[in-house]
């Protein structure tokens, strides 16, 4: 029984210590997308300023 609790605690500690790689990759993709959109809008403003 002690072995089960030890394995459980090790699994919990590992889960808390190790970041979710898929979530981090998705957040990076969203950040790159936002940066690209912002850069495109900024470039359009400098090329075609509103009259």
Q: If you had to describe this structure to a student in words, what would you say it looks like?
A:
The chain has 51 residues and is an all-alpha fold. Helices cover 84% and strands 0% of the residues. The chain contains two helices and no strands. The chain has helices at residues 2-17, 21-47. The chain starts with a helix and ends with a helix.
Pattern of helices and strands: HH
Mean pLDDT: 86
Shape: rod-shaped
Beta-strand content bin: under 5%
Query: What's the number of extended β-strand segments?
Result: 0
Q: What is the count of helical runs? A: 2
Q: Which structural category fits the helices and strands?
A: mainly alpha
Say what oligomer this is.
single chain
**CA radius of gyration:** 23 Å
How far apart the termini lie comes to: 76 Å
Unreliable stretches (pLDDT < 50, length at least 5) are none
* Sheet with the most strands, sense and barrel status: none
Helix content: over 70%
């Amino acid at each position: 029984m002690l072995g089960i609790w030890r394995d459980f605690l090790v699994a919990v500690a590992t889960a808390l210590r190790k970041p979710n790689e898929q979530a981090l990759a998705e957040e990076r993709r969203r950040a790159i997308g936002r940066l690209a959109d912002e850069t495109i809008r900024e470039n359009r403003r400098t090329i075609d300023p509103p009259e």
